């Protein structure tokens, strides 16, 4: 299987970077190949500009997406599955990753409308989301954050464009300076990579 991983964190010293390494190691050991969009390292611009906006709302549908958007779409199209690794910031994805969804999931490529129905087009039908968070998984469940992420990230942004089989793994309890859960999480991520299907 070929997996395209979208990684979003500004620092290689982060726990998220260790999660990315563990996932890549696990996938390789299982014989899977992968490609990587490291959004900060690439300097990915998350801002959807006016021409993209006009294209998206079908006022100027013939404007082609910018090259940096097309190259992301080529990587996604070549994949059987997607991986996402990012920290939970203000109960959501970091702004740069939100911009990746805004810009890369374009009208006509990721989805289109037939009458009132949204039709999904994206190639991969499987995704694994790995999300380190400061709060524990229990706290994020109790406060409704996991439900909100499921509704928005899993159902709308991924299943809504045809990625039907999505696992959301919250790696909770990762408060700065507290390594209580670190090794347990990294072992689990490595195993998820090795067992990925
Ligand atoms: C700007 C910012 C916002 C954050 N918001 C949340 C939050 O809403 N919920 C939460 O559980 N943790 C939050 N955290 C904590 C991070 O999720 C946690 O520090 C991170 O997952 C640890 O991994 P890292 O070393 O990869 O950054 C926030 C951290 C930052 C820097």
The helix-and-strand class reads: alpha/beta
Element pattern in H and E: EHEHHHEHEEEHHEH
- Computed Rg: 17 Å
Number of helices: 8
Major sheet: arrangement of strands: 2-1-3-6-7
Strand percent estimate? 15-25%
User: Low-confidence parts, pLDDT < 50 over ≥5 residues?
Assistant: none
**CATH C-level name:** Alpha Beta
Q: Can you tell me the number of structural domains? A: 1
Q: Alpha-carbon distance between the termini?
A: 8 Å
Specify the helix fraction band. Answer: 40-55%
Number of extended strands: 7
Mean pLDDT: 96
- Sketch the major β-sheet: 5 strands, parallel
Give the CATH architecture: 3-Layer(aba) Sandwich
Bound molecules: flavin mononucleotide
The name of the CATH superfamily reads Flavodoxin domain
CATH topology (level 3) name: Rossmann fold
- Which descriptor suits the 3D outline? globular
How is this structure best described in words?
By secondary structure, the chain is an alpha/beta fold. The chain has one domain (2-194): Rossmann fold. It has eight helices and seven strands. It has a five-stranded parallel beta sheet with strand order 2-1-3-6-7, with helices on both faces. It has a two-stranded antiparallel sheet with strand order 4-5. Helix 1 (15-29) links the parallel strand 1 and strand 2. The radius of gyration is 17 Å and the shape is globular. The relative contact order is 0.19. The model has no long low-confidence stretch (mean pLDDT 96). The site of flavin mononucleotide has 15 residues, from helix 1. Residues 9, 14-16, 87-91, 132-135, 174, 176 line the site of flavin mononucleotide.
């Amino acid at each position: 299987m070929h997996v395209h991983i979208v990684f979003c964190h500004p620092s290689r010293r982060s726990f998220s970077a260790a999660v990315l390494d563990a996932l890549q190691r696990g996938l390789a050991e299982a014989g899977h190949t992968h490609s990587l969009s490291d959004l900060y390292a690439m300097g990915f611009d998350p801002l959807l500009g006016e021409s993209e906006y006009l294209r998206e709302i079908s006022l100027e549908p013939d404007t082609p997406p910018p090259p940096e958007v097309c190259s992301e779409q080529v990587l996604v199209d070549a994949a059987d599955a997607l991986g996402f690794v990012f920290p939970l910031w203000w109960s959501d994805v970091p702004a740069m990753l939100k911009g990746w969804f805004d810009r890369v999931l374009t009208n006509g490529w990721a989805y289109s409308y037939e009458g009132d129905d949204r039709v999904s087009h994206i190639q991969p039908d499987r995704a694994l989301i790995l999300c380190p968070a400061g709060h524990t998984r229990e706290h994020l469940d109790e406060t409704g954050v996991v439900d909100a992420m499921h509704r928005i990230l899993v159902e709308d942004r991924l299943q809504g464009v045809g990625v039907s089989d999505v696992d959301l793994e919250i790696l909770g309890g990762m408060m700065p300076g507290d390594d209580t859960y670190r090794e347990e999480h990294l072992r689990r991520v490595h195993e998820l990579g090795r067992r990925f299907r």
